Amino acid sequence: MSIAATETRPAAWRLLIGYVLPHRWALLTGALLSLVTGATGLLLPLVAKGLIDNLSHDRAITGALLAMSALVVANAALGGLGSYVLRRTAESVVLGARRALSSYLLRLRITAVDRSEPGDLMARITSDTTLLREVTTDSLVGLGTGGLTLVATVVMMGLVDPVLLGVTLAVIAGAGTVLGVIVPRINRASRRAQDAVGVMGASLERILGALRTVKASGAEHREERTLHEAAEESWRQSVRAAKWSAAAGNTAGLAMQIAFITVLAVGGARVATGAIEVGTLVAFLLYVFYLMSPIQQVVGAITQYQTGAAALARIQEALSLPSEPAARPAPLPTPGAEPAALAFDDVRFRYADDLPYVHHGVSFAVPARGMTAFVGPSGAGKTTVFSLIERFYDPESGTISLDGRPLADWELPRLRSAIGYVEQDAPVLSGSLRDNLLLGNPDADEDALTRVVRTTRLDGLVARLPQGLETLVGHRGTKLSGGERQRVAIARALLRRPRLLLLDEATSQLDAVNEAALRDTVADVSRTTTVLVVAHRLSTVTMADRIVVMDAGRVRAVGTHRELVAADPLYAELAATQFLATAG
Ligand code: ADP
Ligand code: MG
Fold it and tell me: What stretches pass through the bilayer (predicted)?
């Protein structure tokens, strides 16, 4: 799914102005250098004329030759410098857009990410921003220099003969009408071409993320077709944009030819009636001729801008996705260092307005310290409890409070820094094992690291890996087993010294020996930290100080194992079947 155009957004060019404004002086310098380069080029014929006129004077020849050489060198140097400054500025504009987008996307609400394609968002940061380069150099500079020349020429034409100027402008206006039809088509086609690149990014991300499954399912051919279709759609639309751009260029060229003929006809008649001199007509025709190049330049800039505008619109859509609340100006109280107490009070929640409720009024309270286990059938809403505690989502009604304060009262990064969260299926990021462990606390000292590696029983793995903690793991390194990944995730969370530890089926893939060891570690931790676990092993559940039984988005019962076996038939059944079956 691509991002829906939900609200009216300001015009794309405003966004561009925002990116270009910081570089206005550099851009102006580059444009000026280009103008001066053009001017030095224009001087050359004059010097050449001087040379030819003075062929009999040796000194004059030497002088003229030196002047010409100087002009040629200056022309090359200024031209080179000008294009370097312009290109550099354009790259800086791209950099600015990429920085803004990257920062923004890291702060997106999870809801926004749930509803968009990561591959498409990636294309917006990488591919769409690239298109701003041409917009900056070609469009803005073209429009600036071409526009200036155009105005100057038109003024000169007006001075020579206002009537003929009127004739010329009428022809240009006619061409403008035609361009008014063509230009939006370029924009539309460019937009579709960029969208197709986004679709391609999304498909690639989907396929490469599950390449093993794709291969095992023998689905390469179908996936290949999807990719090719997206690539072809981008090609088709780009070709269409090229066609309309060419049409626009030709319309401008044709208009100038028509203007030339019309001026010749009208001007001829005016000469015949004695309204103007022949010289005036010749001068005017020369100006019509001069007008050609700036008009082409301006039309080129406008058509070029359409591609950029399409990219800008896509960037703007990404920037309008909901992001997490920014840090508030007034510092909020930071969660203290003590273990946290947590409470859900009548929490109702659904992932989106068009999806069914996942929590229908969930309430429970967890005191500071100790272990609370969440059990219940799959889909009961256990993982969602943790997502809400992390504020990946906010409840629709009801309150979640930490230390007696609603979560919204805590500064978001501070709130999260108090929590250690081991996700269900926590991923290993590509990088070294050390990077992975220190992700949540880069400043942890070596002692703490060694201790956590030992308590999570990763020491055996570290000893086995060729470069120990520095071994690359994840995408471009050694693949870890499911159990190893889980232990890395637990170690990562413990290194944060959390006040609230959330473990979501964090030991489900461990073997019996490792599981028993980790259980002891967690029991240890729960003496000084509030621990919430989603568990399915009886051994873990019976250890908990209290058990919250969830079913279909509701809390059915809270109690100890003994109490619940007697009081809650669902729990008794779970305990008898699911837990026992998987208990290590
Ligand atoms: P549990 O962890 O108890 O198995 P979850 O909290 O993961 O259950 O899910 C509860 C319900 O919410 C399920 O029906 C699931 O399909 C749905 N759900 C979970 N995550 C999302 C999501 N990101 N978007 C939409 N629905 C979701
Ligand atoms: Mg779950």
Answer: 25-48, 60-86, 163-183, 244-265, 271-292
Structure confidence at residue 339 (pLDDT): 81
Mean pLDDT value across residues 68-96? 90
Query: For the segment 386-405, what is each residue's pLDDT rounded down to a tens digit?
Result: 999 999 999 999 999 998 88
Tell me: do 428 and 300 sit in the same domain.
Answer: no
Measured from the Cβ of residue 214, the count of other Cβ atoms closer than 10 Å reads 17
Q: Residues in the chain, how many?
A: 584
Q: Is residue 97 part of a domain?
A: yes
Q: What DSSP assignment string belongs to 486-545?
A: HHHHHHHHHTT--SEEEEESTTTTS-HHHHHHHHHHHHHHTTTSEEEEE---HHHHHHSS
* Tally of structural domains, the chain: 2
The response to whether residue 353 sits with its C-beta less than 6 Å from ligand 1 reads: no
Domain CATH for 356: 3.40.50.300
Per the structure, the complete domain to which residue 422 belongs is given by 342-582
Asked whether this complex has an ipTM greater than 0.95, the answer is yes
**Of the candidates 502, 549, 508, 504, which has an alpha carbon nearest to the alpha carbon of residue 529?**
502
> Tokens 């007034």 label which residue?
330
Q: Give the pLDDT confidence of 109-122 residue by residue, as tens digits.
A: 998 888 888 899 99
Task: Looking at the CA of residue 387, tell me the nearest atom of ligand 1.
Answer: 6
